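*** Fold description ***
***
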Amino acid sequence: MARKAAGKPPEEILLDWKREQASMKARVVDQDTEAWQLDPAFSGLQRVGGVDVSFVKDDCGSACASLVVLSYPELEVLYEDCRMVTLTAPYVSGFLAFREVSFLVDAVQRLQEREPRLMPQVLFVDGNGVLHHRGFGVACHLGVLTDLPCIGVAKKLLQVDGLENNALHKEKIQLLKSGGDSFPLMGGSGTVLGRALRSHDHSTKPLYVSVGHKISLEAAVRLTHSCCKFRIPEPVRQKTFPFPFPPTCATLWAGKPTHPVASRKGDGALQALCSHCR
């Protein structure tokens, strides 16, 4: 994994990572495996989780690896875990999982040891699944390692297999009129790699949803929309930070304009939410 590979020459790292991706990709299940996934109302689904690795401003080696579990359909926080971690593996496009996923696996394992009754039945991952250079993004990687259903949710289009953020793509986005509307992301190979989803009525920027593991694309898109109070699904948006002040999203570090919204604590207070996640 990433922590052990940091000392190798870059060429050897990439070769090892490509081999591992190819081997693990064969284990990805892109179909529904749980009864709740087949139910129109997701009956039987009680806990949804979200994971993310958020970076500290001006320090590319320090990050917060977070896991949040929410009740479903209420979307109330049941469990939170956030650890500051040191990233030792280099960043290489298309190999993000080897830099970050081990910390997310650790978070899932801590939950299993501490509060097994709160284990999520599905994980939302801030990143891509099969919408990836080699069809094996971080959501696939985490799903295979944890054996949990995983959904990749990305804020930007990964331009692979002929997918482009061009005029035609922007035109399709304009045709998404209300929350829940989506269109397929068909690659040049003829494979549907995911869907662009308008996740909320008041958000014009789509999310890019793709299968991670043990769920169909149709169920992944429906559940993503069901978990959105704003643009970003709540299991990902409700990440925590162990900093002296508690921003509600990592982009606050970049000084983006914020908007007051109801605090997730439900105490009548307000929290700042940046326009990136709103």
